[in-house]
Amino acid sequence: MNKVILYCRPGFEKECAAEITDKAAALEIFGFVRVKEHSGYIIFECYQHDEADRLLRKIPFADLIFARQMLLTGELLRDLPPEDRITPIIGMLTGAVNGAGDVRVEVPDTNESKELMKFCRKFTVPLRGALRAQKLLTPQEKANRPVIHVFFIAPGCCYVGYSYSNNNSPFYMGIPRLKFPTEAPSRSTLKLEEAFHVFIPSDEWDERLGSGMYAVDLGASPGGWTYQLVKRSMMVHAVDNGDMAASLMDTGQVIHHRADGFKFEPPRNNVYWLVCDMVEQPARVAQLAADWLVKGWCREAIINLKLPMKKRYEEVCQNLDLLRNSLKENSVYGEIHAKQLYHDREEVTVHIRRFWSAVPGRRDER
Ligand SMILES: C[S@@+](CC[C@H](N)C(=O)[O-])C[C@H]1O[C@@H](n2cnc3c(N)ncnc32)[C@H](O)[C@@H]1O
Which one of 3, 191, 306, 339 is the catalytic residue? Predict the structure, then answer.
């Protein structure tokens, strides 16, 4: 197996390809990418045989912006016989993976694949049984073992491979299934909820998304993001010239400021979260978040960078550099991650967490 498949949002294959090529080159792993536009995945084929497995272990999945999933695979299996699709799949896996903890039969996230997905659901049951009989899969699901992926790109036509459970997306097809809360004022609410799932480990939610915390939401109207914060019993300063949903104002947890998000200053010194969904130039938004973190006005930030331009990968890289450099120049130690979430369209979401600052005089860390 010498190929790495990356799932992505259809239309972002080029960005996903540019990113994996850069990250692989940094590890001195070279290869070429197969890109079919709007297919919802790309394939990076390594020149050297064992390099794909190294790539899968060495590139932190959390560092990939445009990939929803990352797995190792071999040649495409074509024309699987309808009377026995399982034997060739087992053949591909034998010797490659042993005792995997789970199996996912998946498709690209495209409209054309919707029909195929129904087949995948049905096919999973006999496939799982056969994989267990061959000891390729453990008798019970095991979260710390590799995951087998069978990725159907057309009827009878699939890639077969595996991902490492400590370096993959835990979600089927790399997509967290979230239900739209009907009482939320906008669908954007799902972006922030997904960001919490992706960026904050669930065992840290109580500490980092806990009740009573203070948050500032820049570009808050009508309140989809504020809703997520209010739902977690936080107190929110919502900044936007537009109206906020009355249902949120009625909670008593929201103070609405009709102000410019670029000029707004936190009215208190214990704001933990800054979230920002303003439709603005990404560089302005990134700089604003950097300023907040450097000044110690918040401890963590989640910002959305809109990407209406052509060179989207380059734009994101520049903005992440801007953030990194701003923190570094001001001796602020923190971490930055960016992801194109499932609920992001022409945009990516960035999470920045400030650990400590070496510069005295800033607000104390809590
Ligand atoms: C995509 S909407 C935000 C949706 C919101 N996150 C939600 O979930 O309902 C972008 C908002 O940014 C606001 N906005 C744009 N520029 C702004 C600025 N300079 N200051 C404050 N708000 C701004 C707009 O008024 C608009 O309501």
Answer: 306
The CATH number given to whatever domain includes residue 98 is: 3.30.2300.20
The binding-site residues of ligand 1, defined as CB within 6 angstroms of any ligand atom, are 185-186, 188-189, 218-225, 239-242, 260-262, 277-280
Closest by Cα among 260, 322, 332 to 297: 332
Residue of 227, 239, 240 to test ligand 1 pocket, by largest number of atoms within 8 Å of CB:
240
Task: Report d(CA 199, CA 194) in Å as an integer.
Answer: 8
Is 328 noted as a catalytic residue in this protein?
Answer: no
Q: According to the model, what pLDDT value does residue 360 have?
A: 53
8 A C-beta contact, residue 311 and residue 338: no
Mean pLDDT score of the chain:
95
pLDDT at 361 over 80: no
Task: Compute how many other C-beta atoms are within 10 angstroms of the C-beta atom of residue 347.
Answer: 19
One domain, residues 345 and 322 = yes
Host domain of residue 281? 189-355
Name the nearest CA neighbour of 255 among 295, 214, 299, 210.
Answer: 214
Q: Is the pLDDT of residue 89 over 60?
A: yes
Number of Cβ within a 10 Å radius of residue 357: 21
357 known member of a binding site: no
